[in-house]
Amino acid sequence: MAVRTTWQTVHSCGHEVTHDLSDRPADRRASFARWLAGRDCTECWKATRDNDSAAKQEWLSARRAEEQAAAKAWSEQFDMPPLEGPERALEWGERSRYQLATAAYTALVTEGTWDEADWAVLEEKVRTVTRAGWWIDQREAEGTDLPELLDAAGEADRGTENPFR
Fold this sequence. Notes:
There is one protein chain. By secondary structure, this protein is mostly helical. Helix content is about 60%, strand content about 5%. The longest helix is centred in the middle third of the chain and has 36 residues, at about 40-75. The termini are far apart.
């Protein structure tokens, strides 16, 4: 007698669904059916996910607005030049620059061995890279990598503004 392939499952949402488990190994079908019973059915799961995505999108928008405000305030406080690039990349680039620069300050000065004079030199290098895309490309870098990354930045990444402000 063959191991059955279809299972009638009552999901945690209360719906009863027949599942075809023939694509699973015979010795794992029963345990998978038990696992399914502990979950919402597909329709309820999708409905919950769709509702969650709206709330998640709202939360994400609020979080981005907070990060953007912090990045803008930081840019003004430390006299950072505006970034260049496509309109849709400017805010993202500004947030990326802010996050990487503050991570670098924390790693190198606050927790590291650098003093404020060392940081001032690096801060001037940060001001020279004005291409938003460059900062976006570096968004996952470690703060300790910023000096090396800035040294590797090419002419296309640097602005054409007067460096003597």
